[in-house]
User: Fold these one by one.
Assistant:
Number 1:
Amino acid sequence: MWKFRKMNMTILSLLVLFIFTSGKTQAQEFNLNNQESSLKVLGTSNVHDWELDAENLSGKISFKNLNECLIEAINVVVTAESLKSGKSSMDKNTFKALKTDDHKTITFQLVEAKSVTSKGAGVFAVKSSGDLTIAGTKKRISLDFDVNTNGGKAILTGEKKINMTDFKVEPPKAMFGAITTGEELTIKFSIVLK
């Protein structure tokens, strides 16, 4: 009887240990590293092309299974007034267009990872949909990106074209309307999460 009870306790202990360790090895959460990440907004005008760099990013990614790149959640937040061009007058026009007095952040939240395809060596191509919120307007977008899960971190890289007017953002103007910007933007990102 004593041997039977001892064996049951050993099996139960191993089962509990397996449940806790398998959960830790399978489900993982990574936090965005602002210093190593980059997000650029590229646009055009009737004078020259322009670029904004996001200086303040935060966010998280959660995997159901890291080895298979089964993504549970992604949340990325950009501080709107951290988008800088290196020219204060352009930055002021950008902040006005983005209504940063009322809307401090730009956010992306994953809704669904529709497909994940392995490219080999810990790199995956992901097709997803998510909610992008700019200047207080939320819009569901499709977003394709690559995920590299090597080296104890996750690196998301990709780009997305958007139209400012879809988010009720009026393209900025300068010099009393003499300089006008195009409605279409390209967002390029390399997001490092550890």
Number 2:
Amino acid sequence: MAMIPGRAMVEDASFAAHLRAAAPDRQVEAMVGYLRTRLGVSGADVLLADYRIAGLWGVLDSTTSGRIPLTGQDAAARCFSSQQALVDTGPRGVRLYVPVTVWGERVGVLVVELAEPPSDVLAGRLNVLAGDLALALRAADRDTDRYRRVRRRGRLSMAAELQWELIPGRSLWHDSYLLAGQLEPAYTVGGDNFDWAVNDDRLTVTAVNGDGTGLPASLLTALAVNAMRNARRSGGSLAEQAELASDTIFQHHRGERHLATVLLELDFHTGRVQAVDAGSPRVMRVRGGEVHRISLEEQLPLGMFEEGRYSSQEFWIEPGDRLFVVTDGVYAAAPGEREPYGDRVLAKAIRSTRLQPATEAVGTVMRDLRDYHDDTELDDDAVIVCLDWHGMKTERLG
């Protein structure tokens, strides 16, 4: 009987196959070995963005001295922000920086050391390989803690651990839109969260303002988010998603705990947005440089009453519009008895992002919010979600 060759004996025909053959926690080492032997590079590493999207940290060298601030002008930071490959021929030799991104999720930056500036062919090939690596790293996160350890620069509270496991990602891209979100305080966030999903040319986005603080708030949010997902994945409408979450919360807490949320569903073909406003998160629209709050009928928070029922409303967005969704930890922030951040300062911060993509805009507004707190830890959870709507540009296959 002929012996079936093992995976190690099979010559990989592609980079993706090479990564699949490696253990989840050895993806970067597999990448470096492949680039050395197949493309003749001198060395390589992957820099991952931390939880606050404040710095980049090397997987192979994740020491404090290796941090690259994302607000600086280092080539790696500029590559991450612009999502464009860059060549640096500085004192460290020739280095090519390539964004490691999949479906718009900015994982980090691939750094490749070369003997000479790369040709267009080599740069193009490395760009493709970086995309394969991004997909592999996202999949590997299910089975290893290594990349999370690099990204987190402090210990998460138990509440924050639950919240970060809930979010789908920090950015999402399609020809029709660019979507991004951020949680703060990143390492101690309690009840605020966001969620999104793309199904059948519709984008669903939710922002949650959990009741209370710490672990009880996080558990309440986890219950609500998973109930809304359950209804959505069963084909339920926005109203049905809110109703299942409300009923589930009431069954467990009998009206003593509740949760505020806003649910949005965007139709790619028409720009129509259906909305269920069940509490405090706000929706702001930016059009022509002007910032306006979308006026929605505020319904009761989820879980206040048995068999709570919800109705959806609608508004429209046009190509070029931007939506911000923020929780009360953003617009109601009033540290040191200052005026509430959302009365005037939030609109100013939002306008300042007009030349930035959504992925950069959320960080700009969040940094401005932290500055408003005199750079101290936020005294309430904060969620910012930003959607850039480009309009339906391509026909979906299928």
